[in-house]
Amino acid sequence: MNHFKNKIIAILILPLFYISCQKDDALVIYSAGTNEYNNQWIYEQMRRYYYWNNEIPDNIDLSLLSNDYFSSLLFHQDRFSYAYHPSIPESMTSTLRSSFGMDIGFISYEGNVYGVILYVLSGSPAQNNGLKRGQLITAINDIPISQTNYNSLYEITGKADDLSFTIVEYTYETGFSQSVTKGLTSYYTFLQAPLYNILLTGNKRIGYLQVSHFDEGLAQSLLNIFNEFKSQNVNEVVLDLRYNGGGDVSSAAALSILLAPTIVEDDLFITFKGNENGGVINQSFKEALEMNESVVSYYELRQSSIPLNRVFILCGNNTASASEIIINNLKPYISVIAIGEKTLGKDMAGFSISDNRNESQPGWILYPVIYKLYNANGEGDYSNGVLPDIELNELTDIQLFPLGDENEVLLNKAINIISGNGGREQNNTVKVLSKTVQDNREFIILPNSD
What we know:
The protein is of the alpha+beta class. The chain is built from 11 helices and 25 strands.
């Protein structure tokens, strides 16, 4: 991937000092570990690699805290570049998903405001404390949720180490249950296996696949699932990416190869467009797969693909990065029918840049936007999100069915299109409330090794 793929090698002129060469600066030697020492390094990396490098302001005060200095360099349209320091915990961000393995939306129903649990990750604090999709939250940390405080309470959840939720359940048959309070303590949630099942409707055999994140090495699991689909004569696929915030581009390429039977190995999968230093990089499906996948080959994936002529993709405002690549970059090769809400809009990629000048003391790590992403037709620039073909909000019912259940709103819509049998009626008494999006900085991270 040209010289931008190479590891960043900091050449030390002096072991404990750094020489400033920012525009219009007099020659200055900075002591290692100072803000000026760190910030001058940050400035030089951003000037070289950052997609909007020509928009970087000059002569920003080098004495600023490095987090603030980095932020001051960012282009106003950039929502996703970030920097952190391993020994500065406050430079890291967390979300309800990363800390507790879940996320929630908000609705108003019969004059009351509820948080709705959208998903719960396997092995997470949320799952291990009995939380599940569809449960309703009436209070967070013993504070009742209202029209005026739901967003501020949601922001708290992304920063807390401990949380309590007051939970009720609801079905149309039984109504509301008695409330219970669940306490959660944050800890790391392990990688998630894709979930799948096969649904039958008429002469259609529908393979439902839910991928929560494109982890490195996911290709083997996807290969196994599609071999099962193939053995069960699946002839339609519904891919659920509504809670998938991105991940590894090689895993996204693997799934694309399985979904579109007309793809050949040298077909263009993705184009990376950088600044004047990065240039333009084109990758075929095979090249993108092999960038970070050494176990499963293109040919194994090709042999396990299903003869599809379309794919249904369930999406929403948590669908981002590698998931958006699936939607955008499959379009030149297969009919894509996206159902749900507009996606987040992460049409970009980058790699980590580490300050390794002092081997005994790790420095700042930068994740700047370096490339914009395009498909084989040159289509991209979806920073405002990818619009679905069929717009539908999953929270239109007070009763939220499990993912993969044929009664679930978005999946039911796909089944309705496939079968033509008519969809489940929606409840119009639920009002969906907009919420602040918690900080989700992840975008496509490319390898930067030789």
